[in-house]
Amino acid sequence: MSLVQVLFYVMSFIALASALFVAATKNLVRSIFMFFITLFALAGLYVLALADFVAITQIVIYVGGILVLILFAFMLSGKETLNIITQQRKQFISLKKLPAILLAVAFLIVLINVIFKADIDHLAWIKKSIAQKNEITPDAAMTENIGVNLMTSYLLPFEAISVLLMVALIGAAHLSRKGKGQ
Amino acid sequence: MISLTDFLVVSAVLFCIGLYMIVSKHNAIQILIGIELILNAAILNFVAFGKYDRFNNGGQMFALFAIVLAAATTAVALAIILNVYKQYKTIDPGEIDRLKD
């Protein structure tokens, strides 16, 4: 077993365990901070999939932006959210959660079955791309290629998403302004 | 090397954890975290398949777009959550059952 494989298993274990903790814990603050660890482990998994630029973007945008926004919303929405959580602290697994667990497990079984039936590693286009040397190798520097592609073949989606981001920011500022009538 | 199936299994488990959070939680912020988990599972799939596209970078590019879209979604969703809290003094989706009149 090579070092890369060991790192992959460690990273995926950290990601899945912290995601399970996020889902299982009753303490909202702790679940938000464990979500940090899930995102960092996922960035590590992106690096192992040879997408270093996406990993850095994940850390900058998710950890720097989205999590701070979530923390803001939690701090601003007051004590009542904490009261709801403390009322439910009776059993480890309450009976009300059982349908959700059943749904998630059934979906997981279906997904795993599909993944193993599809035999992803021997798809035709993947074999073709390996044969044509179209596969990213660990010593390739991909960031320059991404920048060139972003400004040539993906220019239209890039512009569309910049307009959409501006619309979303203006909309968020409009929604969260102080209304005069209230 | 790591095979594609490993990545897909990890992302399937992440997806199911996110699904469980969306269905079972009584707090809008935790439901939002569940949605983020599902988005991350999708991005992991994009990145894993993007390894076999060296010249066009299709997978990595759409992973970047998905990350930016997730940021926009979260900003709007949090503004909505704050407004709902102002109106109802709770963010439990089960109790938000009245229109504004």
Description:
The complex is a heterodimer of chains A (182) and B (101). With 182 residues, chain A is mostly helical. Chain A has a domain at 1-89: Four Helix Bundle (Hemerythrin (Met), subunit A) (Up-down Bundle), CATH 1.20.120.1200. Helix content of chain A is 74%, strand content 0%. Chain A contains 8 helices and no strands. The N and C termini of chain A lie far apart (63 Å). The model of chain A has no long low-confidence stretch (mean pLDDT 85). Chain B has 101 residues and is mostly helical. Chain B has a single domain, classed as Orthogonal Bundle (Helix Hairpins). Chain B has 3 helices and no strands. In chain B, helix 1 (4-24) runs antiparallel to helix 2 (28-50) and helix 2 packs antiparallel against helix 3. The interface between A and B is large, with 88 and 72 residues.
| Number of H- or I-type helical stretches of chain B | 3
Give the largest interface. A-B, 88 and 72 residues
In helices, the fraction of residues of chain A equals over 70%
Shape assignment of chain B:
elongated
User: How many domains in all of chain B?
Assistant: 1
Q: What is the CATH architecture assignment of chain B?
A: Orthogonal Bundle
**Content-based structural category of chain A:** mainly alpha
Strand proportion of chain A? under 5%
Low-confidence stretches of chain A: none
Question: How many helices of chain A in DSSP terms?
Answer: 8
What is the helix/strand order of chain A?
Answer: HHHHHHHH
Assembly annotation? heterodimer
Per the CATH scheme, the topology name of the domain at 1-89 in chain A is Four Helix Bundle (Hemerythrin (Met), subunit A)
Cα gyration radius of chain B (Å): 17 Å
Question: Would you identify the regions of chain B where 5 or more consecutive residues have pLDDT less than 50?
Answer: none
Overall helicity of chain B: over 70%
C-alpha termini separation of chain B: 60 Å
Strand elements of chain B, count:
0
Query: Could you give the count of β-strands of chain A?
Result: 0
| C-alpha Rg of chain A (nearest Å) | 22 Å
CATH first level of chain B: Mainly Alpha
